[in-house]
Amino acid sequence: MSHPEIDNLISSKTRIYRRGDSEYKINAYQYATTSRNGMGPSVIIYPENLQEILNIVEYAKKEKIAVAVRTGGHQYSGASSTSGENVLLDLSDTFEDPKVDFCYNENHNILKVGISFSMLEYYTLLKERGMFTPGGICSHVHLGGHVQTGGYGMLTRSFGLLADFIEGFDIVLADGNQARVVTVWKPNSEFATADPIAGNDDLFWAVMGGSPGNFGILTHVRIRPLHDKDYPDSRMMMFITQYTPEKHRALYTIHSEMSGDPELPKNFQFMITIMGRKIPTFSGAQFFDLTIAEGKELNEDEKMMHMHGEQYGDGVPWAEDGKGSVFFMMDGNIPVSMMKAAPYSPILVYVKWDNVNGPDEKFTEDDAKWFIRIREAAVEKEVTDYPRWPTPDDLTNFVKRMDGEEVEYESINFRVPLPSSFQQRQFTYDEVREFNQSAYKRTYMSERYDLRNNGYIDWVVERIKEIDDYGLENDYSVNVILEVQLAGGKHSMLATGDPKHTAHSWRNDMTENVIIDAFYDPHDEKAKKFAKEWIDENDRMMGPNGLYSEFDRRFLWATFGKSTDPDHGYVMDTVWDKYFDSREKYDKLIEIKRRFDPDYVFTANGLGVDATSAPYKQCLKFSEK
Predict the structure, then answer these.
(1) Residue 342: its pLDDT value, please?
(2) 3-state SS, residue 615
């Protein structure tokens, strides 16, 4: 069904693609396309304005079809897509005019922001104004999905979730005869209108953590930003070092010491990332042309980066240009060997201290001890600090130092304060994808305080060694991501940041969380088999009743399905207990869903709340490839 009537509801300038169109496939592409089946909307539309969105929502309601919403399309399981007769609205360009969609009211300290900005664009605009907020580190993630799934990141312990800083939002609803756009305010907000909509408090709670895109279509959010001037002594450390199991163990031991201390001050954050070598940072046209010249076929992710940059990486300038960030900054002046793979599997270390108690709080030598210990664990002489200013010259020297040359540049130094807005931008991972490969993705949550001595560290060090060894022996047809981050402690703002206004779960229980992904060459069945078996074994050991957790708790921003899950994890109604901490909470979300979306217009797949109550054609299931 191609829905020809839609042409009358949009401008002749509005981009629209239907199945069978020559450009349909590249516009259907998003992060999960190469790892999941079931993502093929009937029609893809890039609305020019709010009225076109309202028109399409009314059409969908009349025709009894569903609307999927995509801003960045970075959702790991494909929840920002759909299939069958349903339509996809891509809002990546609709609300991103800095003059109209990024407006700061200094008198009220309220920032009204369009949901179409990538996090890279958002952090850049904030930095220009000396402002910052919590948020994640993925540059290509867009604000619309990110804010609804929490906005976890490097500031979570110090300041809370991005969702905690939302004062209100504008949302398109389909709860009446006509679609409407309303403003919803945080309960008891001093900025709320005298007559808020019926159910305002419930809808705010549900949208902020209930199920992204499942209650309506966000267009703008109102945020209370923080200001650099109020936190003048904040520090950061950011370096890279060559991966070895010994360094992994030493660093993770310190990390688990911190996560295992319920009294750890909320000032601190510490994240460790371990990656395989096939990172796209150094990729560009020369690399892809060389690969083709060698008679090798590019996979779908590589083709998208090489030939369809805007669809591959909207909101990330170098990706839109078909280049990795360092390739872009260095204008392609990178050794061919490095284009093919990084010189070694890297460990990236991010450490942060914020003077959360205001301008009078100072960074002390006791605080510095954590930074020093972390550097020692990574072997000080093998540490390569990131440039303080990412200029082409400094990046060139940084890459040269990674490759073993003795060169000088101004690096980030934790002894010197840096504005938090600058830090948020620096912490952002500049690539669209970790690797241009298919993936089995996992993010686990821990409530344990005993990870340092319960056998988990030894186990995870061996697991990462096993997959990195396989990659090294097989031209990195398999690549790993491990990313572990502090979350809790009784002083953490994740736990104490007034969480009752959002539906996010387990905020008081979480001590840390870890991403453990296996990427694989989709042209290599042996690599795929290894990656799948490796991930399945991790699932068995991590939890429930595992080394990492007694439970199986997951994040909405990182949904995944296990082979042991009902419906393989792709129907929220049968795995609700993995994402929400009580049946009472889930039933409340169902009631709110039915009240504000009675016809299930915004149920475009099985990952939505109450999806099994929707018409069959709207409860569509994804599956792993």
Answers:
(1) 86
(2) coil
Kind plus residue range of the DSSP H or E element containing 520 = strand 512-520
DSSP 298: P
Helix axes 365-377, 245-259, angle to 10 degrees: 150
Q: List beta partners, residue 519.
A: 439, 479
| Residue (of 215, 127, 312, 234) closest to 600 by Cα position | 215
The answer to whether residues 185 and 200 touch, using CB atoms and an 8 Å cutoff, is yes
What is the chain's mean pLDDT, rounded?
95
Distance CA 624, CA 517 (A): 14
| Chain mean position to CA 399 | 26
Burial 153-177 (b: 16+ CB within 10 A, else e): bbbbbbbbbbbbbbbbbbbbbbbee
User: Residues 373-428: pLDDT tens digits?
Assistant: 999 999 999 999 999 987 888 888 888 888 788 899 999 999 999 999 999 999 99
Q: Which residue has the tokens 């369809």?
A: 308
Dist CA 133 CA 155 (whole Å) = 8
Q: How many residues does the chain have?
A: 625
CB count within 10 Å of CB 129 equals: 15
List residues bridging with 482 in a β-sheet. 274, 516
Residue 75 has which token pair?
């959702």
Instruction: Specify the pLDDT at position 91.
Output: 98
Whether the upstream peptide bond of residue 187 has omega within 30° of 0, thus cis, is: no
Tokens of 351: 């450490």
Distance CA 182, CA 277 (A): 47
Tell me which amino acid residue 546 is: G
Parts of the chain with a pLDDT under 70: 498, 616-619
With the C-alpha atoms ordered 116, 332, 324, 34, is the resulting torsion angle positive or negative?
positive
Dihedral of CA atoms 529, 530, 532, 538 in degrees, nearest 10, equals 160
How far is it, in rounded angstroms, from Cα 150 to Cα 161? 6
